[in-house]
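job 3f2a | input accepted
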Amino acid sequence: MNDEEHMEKLYHLLLARSVNLGHNKDMIKIFVDGDACPVKEEIVRVANRYALEVFMVSNSGLRAGVGPNLHSIVVSDGFDAADDWIAENISADDIAITADIKLAARCLAKKANVIGPNGKPFNAGNIGASLAMRELNSYLREAGEIKGFNPSFSKQDRSQFLQSLDNVIQKLRRV
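job 3f2a | predicted structure (175 res):
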């Protein structure tokens, strides 16, 4: 491990400790799988309105807005590095925003709330089917039976996301 890699690892270790130890434990935290997230601006707007802490995690720096509780976390380019950082730092009753079904399962295992960017909540009742469908689609793509096509992100998806995020925040604030 060279000096630069050592410094990056140390930086992330210290940052993770500040996330877990240095902030208000009662504050709801939102962890965003940020590289391909189409609703970053909406997340920041909602977080600022409710005074929530946001960790925008990516492999490259993101310009996601400004706010007193917005943290841009840049991880290494390693495979699943952003997912690993989120999974290691998220806690029960935090919120994860991700389209990555495997990351959603990891966050659910820690009792976090998980919402897809389209507003679809992931939960114990649907994560197994989502993981199975992911594996099936992966197999069919490799076999050439289907193409890697994702529908475009719509205004309805954005609206559904905002409604789902607000519902989760309201539920957590009542607890």
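job 3f2a | The CA atoms of residues 67 and 88 lie 24 Å apart.
job 3f2a | closed
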